[in-house]
Design goal:
The protein has 14 helices and 25 strands. By secondary structure, it is an alpha/beta fold. It folds into 3 domains: about 240 residues, HUPs (Rossmann fold, 3-Layer(aba) Sandwich), CATH 3.40.50; about 160 residues, Ribosomal Protein L25, Chain P (Beta Barrel), CATH 2.40.240; about 110 residues, Ribosomal Protein L25, Chain P. Strand 2, helix 3 and strand 3 form a beta-alpha-beta unit. It is elongated. The site of adenosine-5'-triphosphate (ATP) has 15 residues, from helix 2 and strand 8. The site of adenosine-5'-triphosphate has 15 residues, from helix 2 and strand 8.
Length: about 550
Amino acid sequence: MSEEKSLNFIEEIVEEDLKTGKYTSITTRFPPEPNGYLHIGHAKSICLNFGLAKKYGGKTNLRFDDTNPVTEETEYVDSIKEDVRWLGFEWANEFYASDYFEKLYQFAVVLIEKGLAYVDDSTSEDIATQKGTPTIPGSRNQYADRTPSENLALFTDMRAGKFPDGSKVLRAKIDMASPNMLLRDPIIYRIKHAHHHRTGDTWCVYPMYDFAHGQSDSIENITHSICTLEFVPHRALYDWCIENLGIFPSRQYEFARLNMTYTVMSKRKLLQLVNEGHVNGWDDPRMSTISGMRRRGYPAESIREFCERIGIAKRENLIDVGLLEFCVREQLNKIALRRMVVFDPLKIVITNYPDTTEWLSSENNPEDQSAGHRDIPFSRELYIEKDDFMEIPSKKYFRLAPGQMVRLKSAYIIKCEEVIKDANGNITSLHCTYIPESKSGSDTSGINVKGTLHWVSVAHAIKAEIRLYDRLFTVEDVANAEGDFKDHINPASLQVIENAYAEPALCKDSADDRYQFIRKGYFCLDKESTAEKLVFNRTVTLKDGWAKEVKKA
Ligand code: ATP
Ligand code: MG
């Protein structure tokens, strides 16, 4: 059995509700507004909602909260479905709040008939001033005195398109003196002559969030409606609507939204980054979007693990992105195929090696024997990294230097015999010798060397482009940093290496594979890769470079 974990506060509520028999099974929902791509904050909400239903044998609906006609697009709907599935969850039903427009309209009619809603012709400025302030009660205007039949006639005409945008609204009649400003006769319907992505031009009146969300929950018999803390003041209105309409009593529970260091997590800001060209689209691997993380090579398991580890908080906090990267590394270490790629080549010639190719076997993943082996070609001319050689080595430099020996990974020990330079004194290649008895796996040379280098055979190398990503922002708490959030964009968040050299096993591998480029980090094939040109994204470094930077500072 798995270890006992303490319950989070929402699980406690659910267990209590099941124990007391309030519900025999639970239904949750994930309710994205289709006005952008999902980000890691949404992943948190997805894992929570779907996770609860999974744990307690209930179900979860995917509901598109598409009551605002102007910002929503089908492209976003499709991307959201793809992202939820990729994260590993399947919804019981796919619903659209816009499918409830007729029901919601009828709910508004019920309130009108009960004398609990009225049509107000005031300007939005007047409505705002009449609302008062948190310390000064608001006051009603003459429109609040309209009779139910007058209101019904006007609301019918609003629906029929007889009035222009902004000329009238429908307000719930609650309490103009309530300390909760949202209860001071909130607007529940507005006129908007706008085309909706699903209902087209059928409607010109649209419900406000507060009149759509709770009722949609209720229509779907949602037992636990989980949202983020900013909706705490909305709960009273949520409950008021359900109570006065006498419909299924869904209940709202709030938890702290996920905030993460060095990134932004609001669709509005992410959209700005896309539209202003700071990144290359919603799925740019530097984005906090699920599609960006997928393209960057983050496994879905790692994102789920991260959401599990951070738990459910009742107070806002800022989570270190290093924790997410830790989860990514942990998973990739288990599944990544080890490969050798030289980013900045220096040619070496093994002068005592014959003019042939030898295929050396090497493990695909020392952490996973079932991953098997691959063959790596070894020949007279090889590439190593430029910075794995020093002509005048410093003390404790265990890599290659004149007269010094190193091991080539999965191959032989070599010794640098001569440095070859051009007329200007630039190093063009190294002449080395190899020790035939030192072959990895059957080494009888008795020689011990401290350094092991990665390498590729010149004749067999495949050219590849490598994209290295760094944090998109230079400050930890981007949302609360001074000035505009875009002032803090890291100008060096993308570094492209045009001509790296990869061992040939890489072109045979499938696009879904994850790699560890030995000594370099974890990588995956980018979607822009072609048969002619391989493009790799660095998913994450081998170690946390930032933790060191922070400690130094
Ligand atoms: P954004 O501000 O990024 O646009 P949103 O809350 O407007 O986010 P919705 O599409 O309305 O986005 O959100 C769908 C669900 O995801 C909601 O239940 C919302 O509470 C939840 N959610 C959104 N952002 C976060 C976050 N950072 N952490 C946890 N849950 C979130
Ligand atoms: Mg929203």
